[in-house]
Fold this sequence. Notes:
Helix content is 48%, strand content 19%. It has helices at 25-30, 47-60, 79-91, 106-118, 132-138, 176-193, 195-209, 213-233, 248-257, 265-284, 288-300, 311-323, 351-361; strands at residues 2-6, 13-18, 37-43, 64-70, 99-104, 124-129, 143-148, 151-158, 163-167, 333-339, 342-348. The longest helix is centred in the middle third of the chain and has 21 residues, at 213-233. Bound molecules: nicotinamide-adenine-dinucleotide and zinc ion. The site of zinc ion has 4 residues, from helix 10. Residues 43, 45-46, 49, 72-74, 77, 104-108, 110, 130-131, 133-134, 137-138, 141, 143, 152-153, 170, 173-174, 178, 265 line the site of nicotinamide-adenine-dinucleotide.
Amino acid sequence: MGIVNVPLGNRSYDIKIGTGLLARLGAECARLRLDTRCAIISDTNVAPRYGKAAQTALTRAGFAPTLIIIPAGETAKSLKTIEACYNQLAAQRLERQSFVVALGGGVVGDLAGFVAATYLRGVAFVQVPTTLLAQVDSSVGGKVGLNLKAGKNLVGAFYQPRLVLCDLATLASLPMREYRAGLSEVIKYGIIYDASLFQRLERDLPKLLRREPRTLAAVVARCCEIKAEVVRQDETEGGLRAILNFGHTIGHALEAISHYGRYLHGEAIALGQVAAARLSAQVLGLPAPEMDRIESLFQRAGLPTRVKLNAPQRQKLLAAMRLDKKVSGGEIKFVLARRIGAVEFGHKVPANLLAEVINHQLSTSH
Length: 366
Ligand SMILES: NC(=O)c1ccc[n+]([C@@H]2O[C@H](COP(=O)([O-])OP(=O)(O)OC[C@H]3O[C@@H](n4cnc5c(N)ncnc54)[C@H](O)[C@@H]3O)[C@@H](O)[C@H]2O)c1
Ligand SMILES: [Zn+2]
């Protein structure tokens, strides 16, 4: 089992990574000295597969879990679902010392985390992420929240879990498309922070695509280490944490103009990262061969890197970028790479250059 610590003073916690860890959920929670009453929040895809195992593990360790099942999919990340969860917690008489376990992907993690952050002004929270994206990204770092009609993740909190348990065995049932989408965030860590991780991904991609346990364990652990390090330095996104948004300004805009229908998040940010690499070449002199390696790794991972948008769609994309919640004072700032493994945040990009890159990359299909 790999362990990565997220060092945040008295809110520090461990991320434990390994195959078969779900069976240890009860024992691991017992170490946290929590009350016996707890709730597992999961969704309609994950609960039938892993709900029973989670319940059994907790019961064996002396806990009294109740299972709350929410609908699968992004639309469940709503106030309505959250209210339904609160009501079930109240009906089960969960108290201040009780705790909530999030068993699922990023949707379940964000929603259950927000429920835990707010129910009785905060109860303890354990993450058991079951998608690759959740294991390397959303379960780590304490951002929790929900969507409004006006936009994604507009309401939320910083609320750190007490433990993150990544059972790699749960990834076996993840649809290939979802798995590839998770790889998009994995590749991101190489680009923003670790050139040798990027090299390893170039070398071990076939093994990763087969979900080979040892490679997967090492890569998930490294991604969690990087995220933990960034969050340690900048928990509430005053600065450095912004580097985690590499490729996301364009990616989020693509998701928004396609009404969150056409692309999975990981797919949209694959396109966004390739566009950001192209901008980086122009603005920071990212060498052309590195730009090519970035695009080719996404391609080999089966992720989209080019898309055909017509002129009105490209206009909409630029408009959507200006609406991104990370934009301040109307100015779009980009995370750009000087080379693979070294990025800088807060770069303004001239509008004509941005339009040029978008017109080039997002109007020709290859
Ligand atoms: N908090 C953060 O820092 C952060 C970071 C990145 C993304 N997010 C959020 O994460 C969400 C996306 O997360 P996601 O990609 O995990 O999506 P998701 O939770 O919707 O999961 C994707 C799909 O896979 C299914 N699934 C989950 N685990 C499975 C398994 N083991 N086997 C079979 N099916 C499984 C789910 O039911 C769902 O249909 C978004 O809402 C995004 O805003 C949050
Ligand atoms: Zn992302």
